[in-house]
Amino acid sequence: xxxxxxxxxxxxxxxxxxxxxxxxxxxxxxxxxxxxxxxxxxxxxxxxxxxxxxxxxxxxxxxxxxxxxxxxxxxxxxxxxxxxxxxxxxxxxxxxxxxxxxxxxxxxxxxxxxxxxxxxxxxxxxxxxxxxxxxxxxxxxxxxxxxxxxxxxxxxxxxxxxxxxxxxxxxxxxxxxxxxxxxxxxxxxxxxxxxxxxxxxxxxxxxxxxxxxxxxxxxxxxxxxxxxxxxxx
Length: 233
What we know:
Surface presentation of antigens (SPOA), 2 domains, 7 helices, 4-stranded antiparallel beta sheet
């Protein structure tokens, strides 16, 4: 009988980053001891909150040149745009949750924190960059919150506005193709005509609906409300 192997979520996240980084060579994520030589002031960071919460950072040497030399002069694509798919892939290995906005910032504090695991993104024996992940384990054995307490707590934020987005489809494009877009270009999405649109609350899928027109404005008619489990999936 074979024993199941439990993969450390940090290792899985690092491997996902290595696969999705825009490199012309195959990258390998290798855990290292100690703190590599910076600078870390132009890292791309994001925080993930969910089953396993974590802080993530990527320092990639010459990411713009690696992805496409013309990005440096583009106002359409930034370093954050180029590295966001890798952060999304890393967050996807941590279970259900939400990955916050990614940004360029100083990650020195994260890289020097003893609780942070650092991986060299290596190609041909040399580091092309580094990936840092600091897992913030959710408290186990905590006293469950009663339904009454939950309702009372939520009532305090009833007037807080949140971003509601309707999405009719997605597609993946290379940076080169994005920079080549011109008026009149047609982008094919991954959804057929007549398929329901997704309704997202702060990036979380909460419902499906159909696009309608009300007084010459677009609107969405809700056809299905998803429960928490479906939305996380």
